[in-house]
């Protein structure tokens, strides 16, 4: 349960925002959010979009993001059952900011690459 008397502070070890931040910024969370920013998708569509993610990791990531209120899982009655994933309103807001960060990083990869090469040459 969240302590309502203390404001969230991600720098505090006890702050419940830490796990949520980890889910969003971990290796697969940001990529999953970015994939879902393009609309409702089935599990296999997300997996194809995110190269290198295993079924297990995608399932765990989607579960974490659903628990945090970022993703909504919908089971449609069909044979076989069809499951879709979509961002919640909060998830859309967060994904917009993550996509801005992704765009910034991608736009500056020449600078990042040069910095890495310089660092590696001197260390």
Automatic annotation (TrEMBL):
Presence of keyword Transcription: yes
Residue ranges occupied by any HTH hxlR-type domain in the UniProt entry: 15-113
UniProt keyword annotations, A-Z: DNA-binding, Transcription, Transcription regulation
KW Nucleus (keyword) present: no
InterPro entries given in the database record: HTH_HxlR (IPR002577), WH-like_DNA-bd_sf (IPR036388), WH_DNA-bd_sf (IPR036390)
Gene3D superfamilies with a match to the protein in the record: Winged helix-like DNA-binding domain superfamily/Winged helix DNA-binding domain
Protein's recorded name: Helix-turn-helix domain-containing protein
Organism: Tessaracoccus lacteus
Upper taxonomic lineage: Bacteria, Bacillati, Actinomycetota, Actinomycetes, Propionibacteriales
């Amino acid at each position: 349960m969240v302590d309502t008397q203390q404001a969230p502070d991600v720098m505090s070890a006890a702050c419940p925002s830490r796990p949520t931040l980890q889910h969003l910024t971990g290796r697969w969370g940001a990529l999953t959010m970015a994939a879902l920013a393009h609309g409702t998708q089935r599990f296999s569509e997300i997996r194809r979009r995110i190269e290198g993610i295993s079924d297990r990791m995608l399932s765990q990531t989607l579960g974490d993001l659903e628990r945090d209120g970022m993703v909504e899982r919908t089971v449609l009655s069909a044979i076989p059952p069809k499951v879709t994933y979509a961002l919640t309103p909060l998830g859309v807001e967060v994904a917009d900011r993550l996509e801005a960060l992704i765009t910034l990083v991608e736009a500056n990869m020449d600078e990042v690459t040069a910095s890495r090469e310089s660092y590696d040459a001197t260390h």
